[in-house]
Amino acid sequence: MSAVEQERPEAAKTRFAKDQLKAFVERIERLEEEKKAISDDIRDVYAESKSSGFDVKALRAVIKLRKQEPQERNEHQLILDTYLSALGMLPA
Predict the structure, then answer these.
(1) 45 and 6 housed in the same domain
(2) Distance (Å, rounded) from C-alpha 45 to C-alpha 56?
C-alpha cells in the first residue's frame, strides 16, 4: 500500500470531522437565531402587558414561581418569611 493510499482514510476522517463540525456550528447558529426571535417575542408580550397596566417586575416574579415545584416554592417562601421576620419586616 502506497503512502497516498494510506492517507486517504485519514483524509476521509478529517473531511468527515470538518463536515460534522460545520453541521454542529450551523445548527447552533440557527438555534441562536430562533432563540433571539423568541426572546424578542417575550419582550413584546411583557411590553404589551405593561401597556395594559400590569407590573412587569411582578409578572416576571410570577413566571419564575410557576416554574418551581410547589414544595420548592413553599420552602423558599418559608425561608424568605424567616429572614423577613428576623429583620423585623413582617407584621408582628
Answers:
(1) yes
(2) 10
Which secondary structure element, helix H or strand E, spans residue 44, and what is its range?
Answer: helix 3-51
Q: Count how many domains the chain has.
A: 2
Residues near 56 by Cβ (< 8 Å), separated by ≥ 6? 46, 49, 50
DSSP reduced 3-state for 40 = helix
- For 5-49, what is each residue's pLDDT tens digit? 555 778 888 898 999 999 999 999 999 999 999 999 999 999 999
The DSSP element (H or E) to which 80 belongs, if any, is helix 70-86
Tell me if 31 sits within 8 A of 44, measured CB to CB: no
pTM for the complete prediction?
0.68
As a three-state string, the secondary structure of 4-23 is HHHHHHHHHHHHHHHHHHHH
Q: 37, 59, 40, 64: which is closest to 49 by C-alpha?
A: 59
